[in-house]
Amino acid sequence: EELQKAAGENQLELGEYDRLLKYFGFFNPSYQSLVRRGRALAETRRRFRSASAPNCSNVDGAQARAFDLFMGLLEATVKLISMFGAPSDLSTEEVIMEIGQQCGGHHVHQRLFGRVIEAVQRMDHSKAEGFGLAQLLDCARELGKSGQMLAHKLERKWAQASLLDGVCSAIQGLLQRAAPSGWAAALKGLDTVIFALEYIGREDLDLAYEQFEAECRCQQQDAMLELLLCAKQIYCHPLAGSDPTSISPFDDIAEVILRNAPPLESRVVWRGALFEPEDWDRILAIAGAAAETMRERYNVLMLPHHTQMITLVMFAIRTCGARFAGVAGKRLPKTMLARIGTGEGKSMVIAMLAAFVALRGLRAHVVNDNRVLAQRDFRTNLPLFERLGIVASDDRSDLKSESVQVVYCTGDDVEKSCLESLIEGKVEELEAGLKQAVLIVDEVDGLIFDKGTVSNEVFEHHEYSGWVNNWLRQLDLNGRIERDWEDFRANGDCSMTIQREVEEAYRQIGSRTEGVDYVVRGDMPYMTDRKTGLIKEDAWSLWLEVLKRHRRDGAYNVQYKYVKAVLCRLQCFMSYACIFGLTGSLGQTSEMAYLQEHYEAVTFNAPYFLDTCRAEPMTTGRPVVGDRVVVKTENSEGSMNPARVGTVGLVGRIVEDHPRSKTYTLEFGDGRKLAYQEHWVAPGRFQGRHLPRQVGEAEPLSNRDAQEEAIVELAVQKSLQVPVLIVMKDSDSVQRLAASLRERLVESGLLPYVGAEETSVVELLHNPRDPFDFVHRVELATEPLPEHLFEPPVGTIIGDFDGKYVEALREDDVGLKKASSGSEEEFDNFEVGDAESPFQMLRAPRRKSAAPDRPQQQWRITVATAEGGRGHDYRVTDPAVDEHGGLMLILSWVPWSEREWIQFLGRTARQDHCGQYAVLLNGEEENVKAALAQRLPGESPVRCILRKGDQDTAQTLQGKGSEIKKGRLMHKFTSRYWTLHKVDRTSKNQDWEWKRLCENYLEQNTDQIQQTFCSVIVPPKALILGFAKINPETPTRPGLSEWVCRSCGTVNIFPSPGADQQMPTVRCGHCGVTSD
């Protein structure tokens, strides 16, 4: 009775109270406030019941049908309060109200959120740790986004009604698989599930092969065309038959696949590689396991799509020839690289390929340059490997293990494994073992190009470290190093060289800049790559060591290190039986030529998934020029054109309209232009991916100020309709532009009160101090601005109280205080004495902006460095964003590499969403001026800069051949040096000479490197391994002798014996035969 009296007309029914009273959380003050005030209950109940009543019968499950979803929410809420209490920063009213806004107004949203309510009602207290009202609200927010997108597709008939059932089933699977504390995170991937389910059954295998063939012909890759024809003999029928929707959720997917897939009757041969019928059985088993794994994860049928299967079969055929070089005149490529677009299931292709390699009796080493991503992919795909009985690991130590079939690791792990073998003198054993392994590289471009051709490994010399610390103390005290001539006579050039290095490093720390040369994490400076701005965690430099000591006021022991191992990355990689790379971009012409020359690589592009899906006609008005239409009929008896064969279901753009003849001329994505009768085409659902649309093609601006003004103007304008992402060159530019944006938003009146601009502009800087905060900011980037920015929350003080202007929101019966220039104006019954201090947070209802008709910023503006422009998924789920062109990407610079450029553009127009971008350049920048000086007629600034970058890259790569030869030689000598170092205990002089050679080898030719190593570092011995002379015509320097192998004729050089020593026995460095 007391509750009914307090709530008045907003009260619950007595039976409804009974449901809640069984939980002691009902008496929590936060919940009591909800049921006593009643307004939140009434509003939320109205939202739920207005939409749920006509659809209640569609809610799955007997328990969900037994009571209204609104009561289910109240019961779930009171249960969570009973288990964990009410959150301190959220009232129960606020949670209920926002859940009602997110999921109560549409039957699709209710259907999705009903799954969460059911899961909470079944929740076991012992397994619910970390899940409370705040997490329930997070689930509602995620489902609000997915529901909005799903309802949009269903209402416009773009998707079948069964899609809703599939999504509900997927939600149920996600909630069952994840711990409650991870539900909201699991639901973030629901848009990918919706995308996959929407297009299931629309794939066309013939169209997929047409697109693959077109890509191969475009690249003039005859070898890949041959391989594609072989794949076509193997994968010639969809895994699920002609109707994937006919498969029951309870069917054994592996059995369905075996039943639908035609058997392979005989082997398929490509350049000596033999793909046997048993290999096709392995492929089918892997596809079935992948589908079962996806069903276990999402509770829906998600088969590998055609582009994934064709790509897998092409790589699998090459794997079957891993131990062969090919046939006469047609060698098997050592390296195969495939471009697979972002979001196209590249990680799944890699996992299935690794599984095939393992089932074929080889080992697979899967490399991702980012350890976090490598570990994530391993955890994601481990159920697939376990289902197939494959032993997999993400431990670097397993790279040498023959019992571990698949290892996920980084490129650095491969190099360190190789380094360990070099140091142990077991490089031959390592390379022999790698002949039974395949290297699979994720984003191969970064590993091959961005890290260079060699890796120098440094080691500490403890004696030299003692010298350095002593000299640094002298510099601190006296400003100079006291020369010790006795020490110089004892240690020679070594001592003086290190002294000069210390003095130079001591001077350098004054010119090193934080944020450019280094960054500080946890009070420890780390070197950064000046080109990319990224942290080089393991990098060592003497100036960095001195800087660490300086920052700790001398309380740091400097380590003196120098290079004692040179690893050739190419040598490490080429030791594998073959190399497979999957990447978002294959790079520029010069880079692909480099790959072909040094890695024996061939490349192909896997078509985008949407480009292999046929379109569906739609009945709307008569199309006009510029419209996209789907082909319904390609030929008739009276009008035949062979060029039109195979175009049914394709989408083209009308470029010519001929009303008299009632025909259209269509232009397709591959450039073909064909004529069709007007009744042969119809407006159609888009087939093929959306390409990002460039907004204007402005010439470079006059200077930096003009550039940033144009960026601010465009970003502010676009933020009224869509999220905006701006990519700047460096951190200073990001912070400067973000300040200008906030200032403009306030000046233009697009924000309701001072302080809101901090939330409306997001900054993403490279090398974030908190990586989790960086990920959170990426997620915020495409979120609409929360309502409280437009309706200030209770108790908000607005403005600068100590200065000119303040507003403080308070309770209804107290009112609003407004002070300006020292004067006070009272509203309602406001009295100054009501507040204990000017800055007290006062309670009040929310008030809307004073000018509701003025346009306001709806979406955040994100300003990022290049790191924010590559690799991150900016999720767009609001259909209104697509209707206004999609996420707006603004680029303030064009990178030198087309790979980077493609990465930038890949942030927008993802999956089946629209996208737009603009390029606003600073004409004063040196690279812009240099590129435009060579601009061709009719060439855009972007194309001009990318072409110039390709030319510069070609020049840079021209010298890599010589560098690689020297690097491979030093790689070999590193193994010889460490064998001497371990076995014979090299002298200090030998170590110093090796240090000098490692530092200066690039300045010498290969003959000089070989003879220097042989004469200075290798001591005379009774039995010595000769060095196969690189160029027999090069004169042999004094101190070295020659011996010609009687077996193979190789000229070997070795250290000459002393006057009192006998001629040593020499083992040929080529064939191993000895001179005795």
Plain-language structure description:
- 44% of the residues lie in helices and 14% in strands.
- A seven-stranded parallel β-sheet has the order 7-8-6-9-14-5-15, sandwiched between helices. A six-stranded parallel β-sheet has the order 21-30-29-22-28-23, with helices on both faces.
- The protein starts with a helix and ends in a 9-residue tail after the last strand.
- It is built from 39 helices and 35 strands.
- It is an alpha/beta fold and 1076 residues long.
Integer average pLDDT: 81
* DSSP strand count: 35
SS strand fraction = 5-15%
Fraction of residues in helices?
40-55%
| Tally of alpha and pi helices | 39
Largest sheet: 7 strands, parallel
Choose one word for the global shape: globular
> Gyration radius, to the nearest Å?
34 Å
Unreliable segments (pLDDT under 50, ≥5 consecutive)?
52-67, 789-852
* Structural class by SSE content: alpha/beta
Physical arrangement of strands within the biggest beta sheet: 7-8-6-9-14-5-15
What's the N-to-C terminus distance?
A: 111 Å
What's this entry about, in short?
The chain is built from 39 helices and 35 strands. It has 1076 residues and is α/β, with parallel strands linked by helices.
Task: Provide key terms for this protein.
single chain, 1076 residues, alpha/beta, 7-stranded parallel sheet, 6-stranded parallel sheet, 39 helices, 35 strands
Strand and helix map with partners:
Layout: H1 2-7, H2 14-21, H3 29-37, H4 39-52, H5 62-66, H6 69-84, H7 92-103, H8 107-122, H9 133-155, H10 162-177, H11 183-187, H12 190-199, H13 205-219, H14 222-234, H15 253-260, E1 268-270, E2 273-275, H16 277-298, H17 306-319, E3 326-327, E4 330-331, E5 335-339, H18 346-359, E6 363-368, H19 371-387, E7 392-393, E8 406-409, H20 411-424, H21 427-434, E9 437-442, H22 444-450, E10 454-460, H23 462-478, H24 485-491, H25 493-508, E11 518-521, E12 524-527, H26 542-551, E13 561-568, H27 569-574, E14 578-583, H28 589-599, E15 601-605, E16 628-631, E17 651-658, E18 663-667, E19 673-677, E20 681-683, E21 693-694, H29 704-718, E22 724-727, H30 731-747, H31 757-760, E23 761-764, H32 771-781, E24 797-800, E25 805-808, E26 817-820, E27 823-826, E28 861-864, H33 879-883, E29 887-891, H34 898-905, E30 915-919, H35 926-932, H36 941-958, H37 960-983, H38 988-1000, H39 1006-1017, E31 1023-1025, E32 1027-1028, E33 1040-1044, E34 1051-1055, E35 1065-1067
Parallel strand pairs: 5-14, 5-15, 6-8, 6-9, 7-8, 9-14, 21-30, 22-28, 22-29, 23-28, 29-30, 31-35
Antiparallel strand pairs: 1-2, 3-4, 10-13, 11-12, 16-17, 16-20, 17-18, 18-19, 24-25, 25-26, 26-27, 32-34, 33-34
Helix pairs in contact: 4-7, 6-8, 7-9, 8-9, 8-10, 10-12, 10-16, 13-14, 14-17, 15-16, 16-18, 16-19, 17-18, 18-19, 20-21, 20-37, 23-25, 25-26, 28-36, 29-30, 35-36, 37-39, 38-39
